[in-house]
Amino acid sequence: xLVTGASGGLGAALVAQLASEYDILALTHRRRLPSxxxxxxxxxxxxxxxxxxxxxxxxxxxxxxxxxxxxVHAAWPGAPRGGLLESEANTVRLQVSFGSTLVVSxxxxxxxxxxxxxxxxxxxxxxxxxxxxxxxxxxxxLGKACLEHSARLLAPELARKQITVNVVSPSFVxxxxxxxxxxxxxxxxxxxxxxxxxxxxxxxxxxVRFLLSDQAGFISGQVMGLTGARL
Length: 231
Known about the structure:
Elements: E1 2-4, H1 9-18, E2 24-28, H2 35-38, E3 43-47, H3 55-63, E4 70-73, H4 89-99, H5 101-113, E5 119-124, H6 138-158, E6 163-170, H7 183-191, H8 201-212, E7 222-226
Parallel strand pairs: 1-2, 1-4, 2-3, 4-5, 5-6, 6-7
Helix pairs in contact: 1-8, 4-6, 5-6
């Protein structure tokens, strides 16, 4: 199993919760894999820039002759503030690329290395994509919306090799880009959720684990929200 963004708050949590079931190649960027994950015998770390030239070729070399069951794409280049008109072109490009060009490249990697029995591509999105775009983070919302449409369009093509692709779209999770939120912001978010609490990394990992399982073999091209019943 390949996991991108493995040194981030949500990515690291996913690696920790999936490591008991899968051998994992964990991709990181600026930060190394946390030591508690790197010390696990079935977790290997690879530090690279996903957007860099030859990055996925390095991943293919690391895989060698091993077959790849699935990819969990949790990496994301932050959530820059501002509307689209005030965002720099490179900022918008990077957000859109992580939701489109990079997703297609990861899909190709899986398509080329998957076993005959098929595999899974799970993309970590956000309710700030198409469900509830967030104007103060407009480029981020655009990128996550691209992620959703990439999954829908890839699904019929990946099905040729029995590969499913789905998006897990959590609402506010207090890790990663939301880690700096103060107590007032967290309480405000919690108050807007009918179930009365924030989405947790365990909630995300539970849905990811299901989508990786045999039971999810007929689910593909779907965007699955974790909203706590919030409309």
